[in-house]
Structures are given as C-alpha cells and as structure tokens.
Amino acid sequence: MYQAIPYRTSVSTVTRNLPITTGILESNVTTMVSENAVIIIGTRGCCLCHVVKRLLQGLGVNPPVYEVDQDHETAVAAQLSTNTAETVQFPAVFVGGKLLGGLERVMASHISGELVPILKDAGALWL
C-alpha cells in the first residue's frame, strides 16, 4: 500500500540571519559575497528571492539565500553599493563577487543566453 507524502509549505533553504551590530554586519556582507560563487541577498520573506533561487537551481546552481531583516536593509544596501558602481536593490544576485543585478537582470541574461557562461566563468557550473 502506498503512503501519502506529507506536504510541507516551507522548504528548508540555506538561510542565515545577519548579526545585529552594523560593524559586524558590514564585514559579514562583504565576506559572504566574496566567499560564494553565487549568492542571493534579499529581505526576509521576499518572493522574488524564491523565484531567482528556483531559476538558478533549474540551471544546476544551488545558491545560498541570505535574508536581511527590515531594520538592517538600508545598512546592507549601502555597504553593497560601496563595492559596486550602481545602487543595490533587493534581491541582489552576486556572481563571482560582482553584482549581476536583481530578478529582471537575471531573467534577461537567462533569456538572452548569457547567464550560463557567466555562471561557468564564476565557477558555479562545471558542465
């Protein structure tokens, strides 16, 4: 006899909360971006982060998603903006330590066929 698989509304993902103090917060953000080939930084409960993660998982990349509390959103965005030439809006996708962009930029590069070579150059894909 077959048994039903229980349905879970939430799937466990690699999610870490950023620390509360801004000094540690700023150093952790830059460290996280430099340590991961692909990373998604977004606000807590952001559905666009989920969409970007599912798109990248469909290509064979398993990116970590770091959720930022609403209290620290401006501090994290300011810190990430100092490392890039443009302002950072969440969700922010970093590939190879550089800002790729948000959902629109990731989707546009995927549709145009540019996303897979970018991921291969960053070391996130081996095929």
Describe the 3D structure.
This is Glutaredoxin-C1 protein. It comes from Medicago truncatula. Keywords: Cytoplasm, Redox-active center. The chain has 127 residues and is α/β, with parallel strands linked by helices. It has a single domain (20-122), classed as Glutaredoxin, CATH 3.40.30. It has helices spanning 22-35, 47-59, 73-83, 103-112, 115-122; strands at residues 15-17, 38-43, 65-68, 92-95, 98-101. Strands 1-3-2-4-5 form a five-stranded mixed β-sheet. Helix 1 crosses helix 3. The longest helix has 14 residues, at 22-35. The radius of gyration is 16 Å and the shape is globular. Residues 7-24 have low confidence and may be disordered.
List its traits.
Glutaredoxin-C1 protein; 127 residues; GlrX-like_pln_2; five-stranded mixed beta sheet; 5 strands; alpha/beta; Glutaredoxin; 17% strand; 44% helix
CATH class category label: Alpha Beta
Number of separate domains: 1
Biggest β-sheet description? 5 strands, mixed
Task: Determine the fraction of residues in helical runs and give it as a percent range.
Answer: 40-55%
Domain Glutaredoxin: 38-99
Protein name: Glutaredoxin-C1 protein
Subcellular location: Cytoplasm
Keywords: Cytoplasm, Redox-active center
